[in-house]
Fold IS66 family transposase.
Amino acid sequence: HLRAQIEKLRRMLFGTRSEKLRREVEQAEALLNQRRQDSDRYSGWEDDPQVPRQLRQSRHRRPLPAHLPREIHRLESEESCCPECGSELDYLGEVSAEQLELVSSALKVIRTVRVKKACTKCDCIVEAPAPSRPIERGIAGSGLLARVLTGKYCEHLPLYRQSEIFARQGAELSRALLSNWVDACCQLMTPLNDALYRYVMNTRKVHTDDIPVKVLAPGRKKAKTGRIWTYVRDDRNAGSSEPPAVWFAYSPDRQGKHPVQHLRPFRGILQADAFSGYDRLFSAEREGGALTEVACWAHARRKIHDVYISSKSTTAEEALKRISELYAIEDEIRGLPESERLAARQQRSKALLTSLHEWMVEKNGTLSKKSRLGEAFSYVLNQWDALCYYSDDGLAEADNNTAERALRAVCLGKKNYM
């Protein structure tokens, strides 16, 4: 167990975390190299001396995006007469070339001057009303606030680094000031957050997951561990044209009461991992009725894959091959309507799942319950009904990768913040 854990940590630190079998990767690379050779043989490249020049392809640059604004710089020759004979030059044509340039953001101060007027016959004074500000009595304009929020939550820039960037642009904005701006903006966007929450919960299927985050509370020297929960509405794989959306929530711990509270208005399918904190959501005693539990094949596969990487077990390899057959079907039907996805799963996936279950039950009987592969197989068999639900519902997914992808931005931010 210790050696396996060391190997897993080494792969996480220094190697790829892809779960594809090395043999499959090597086969794909070999096929790619062969197709590259075939392509070069029949079409040719500019730098291939064995291909006749007239058959070589020219590598044209991709045109710059048409929607970007254009700034025209027209250059005229200083010569008005022919340098050879002195005759007058006539217009012949133009040669143009485009270059992509960045117009960097720059800080500026907007000074608002309100004119006062007084009545010449009485003491009445008239003054233009002051324009509204995003933050009352605040010095930041809406564009600057948007830049700070985008930098923090989209580009994962900590506020101390943003403070340094603004300092290089000539404005000393402390991290505390930026933090106050972020807090004020969050308060302003509460109605938007509430509307997003209602939209995410008003659907038949939600993906959920959570991730630990370090939190440094005021007055504490040591950071504590909180949780970021994500709830995703995304039915594009089932042919839906409704826009996807993600709602995030924070909690100071990982108690099951938090997802219970977050999902209070939801009714439908919940795709999640096997976290025990979700159990109350699938209970008939839940207010509003039990949610439908759908487990994650990617999570189950990952446990078997870790065993295969460390031990090269042929049994683990066979399990991975069988699971990959299920995913091959999912790749083919991705984006099709629910009815077509359901028909394909009923006709093809059902039989594979039945065969996989029989095989795993047989193999699990020969494995030690304390072995890592035995634990992985037991996990799959204990979750079997929830893992197989997707084969009876065209809307459900085979895994919970949708929620895991939604948390990638949080992972990037964690690396930069801490």
User: Anything to note?
Assistant: The chain is about 45% helix and 10% strand.
